[in-house]
TrEMBL record:
One of its GO terms (molecular function) is S-adenosylmethionine-dependent methyltransferase activity. One of its GO terms (biological process) is methylation. InterPro entries: Bact_Chemotaxis_MeTrfase, CheR_C, CheR_MeTrfase, CheR_N, SAM-dependent_MTases_sf. Transmembrane segments: none annotated. Residues 31-282 form the CheR-type methyltransferase domain. PROSITE patterns: CHER. It is an enzyme of class 2 (transferase). Keywords: Methyltransferase, Transferase. This is Putative methyltransferase Cher3. The lineage of its organism: Bacteria, Pseudomonadati, Nitrospirota, Nitrospiria, Nitrospirales. It comes from the Bacteria. It holds the Pfam family CheR_N. Its EC number is 2.1.1.-.
Length: 297
């Protein structure tokens, strides 16, 4: 029986090498699959459903960082030096973002979604894959400006514990404030972004009060269950790194979490279509990838 299971695992691993479509050689592809399997079995972090081209690029950077000649050597480091895990997760989880990224999305929230949210006596917002917190603070600030902050509970979740610590700290380099401020203004802001942070010599520290209604928690869209009921879920530029089955799973979680006629915001290259959940959602602001859970199901 053990031998049969091993043969089955090897067969599955070998078949997955076809996912690389020539991005790496067969040996590297097989080593990467074994590395991903080891990461899952040893630490229960499951990246096996991530799209291979982007994952391969990030693993190549990790291999270079750790000074490894092969992915097998990187696997050895991972298994025998647990302290290397947080750094590797930093490479595998994409944390590149900015406040009010794609201002049109936040403007659409203000103009089209907020009027509906104002009809609820209390609200829950789930920022899934929050990274270092840029999108979370964008939403909290927007809700404060629209008079919704005090009736809203925010959930900020991510797979990366270190990223969550950054999000909870709310500290960002000063050289990022110019783009943050421009995005904020273009989103239809009613106040200056500088009202919400204190500028030090090198960093901007956002007001602690912005976090008073936020719960920070680890959550894995790959393997965990629904995190909480929500009226709005914002998960932007995360699904593009998933393969189709994993996208289907994530959208299924969002469908379960959303209240009747709740809202889902995705990145500009993401969609609920082709995930098996098309009939659950209707396009609410098509251009900005904002969907609404249908109320007739």
């Amino acid at each position: 029986m053990v031998g049969d299971n091993m043969k089955a695992n090897v067969a599955v691993t070998a078949s997955r090498t076809a996912l690389y479509q020539g991005h790496v050689g067969k040996t590297d592809a097989l080593e990467i699959e074994l590395l991903l399997e080891s990461l899952y079995r040893a630490y229960e972090y499951d990246f096996r459903g991530y799209a291979r081209p982007s994952l391969t690029r990030r693993l190549a950077l990790a291999r270079e960082h750790f000074g490894c000649r092969s992915y097998s050597q990187l696997q050895d480091v991972l298994l025998h030096e647990p302290a290397a895990l947080p750094k590797l997760l930093g490479f595998l989880t994409v944390q590149v973002s900015e406040m009010f990224r794609d201002p049109g999305y936040f403007r659409a929230l203000r103009q089209e979604v907020v009027p509906h949210l104002k009809t609820y006596p209390s609200l829950k917002v789930w920022v899934a894959g929050c990274g270092a917190g840029e999108e979370l603070y964008s939403l909290v600030i927007l809700f404060r400006e629209e008079g919704l902050e005090n009736r809203t509970l925010f959930y900020a979740t991510d797979i990366d514990r270190d990223a969550l610590k950054e999000a909870e700290a709310g500290i960002y380099s000063l050289d990022r404030m110019a783009s943050f401020t421009t995005n904020h203004r273009r989103s239809g802001a009613k106040e200056s972004l500088s009202e919400y942070y204190h500028a030090g010599s090198r960093a901007a520290v956002f007001d602690k009060a912005l976090r008073k209604r936020t719960v920070f928690a680890e959550h894995n869209l790959v393997s965990d269950a629904v995190f909480a009921e929500a009226h709005l879920i914002s998960c932007r530029n995360v699904l593009i790194y998933f393969d189709r089955p994993l996208q289907r799973r994530a959208i299924g979680l969002f469908r379960e979490a959303l209240v009747w006629k709740g809202f889902l915001g995705l990145g500009d290259k993401e969609t609920v279509h082709f995930t098996g959940h098309d009939e659950t959602f209707e396009s609410f602001v098509r251009k900005e990838r904002i969907y609404r859970k249908r109320g007739d199901l």
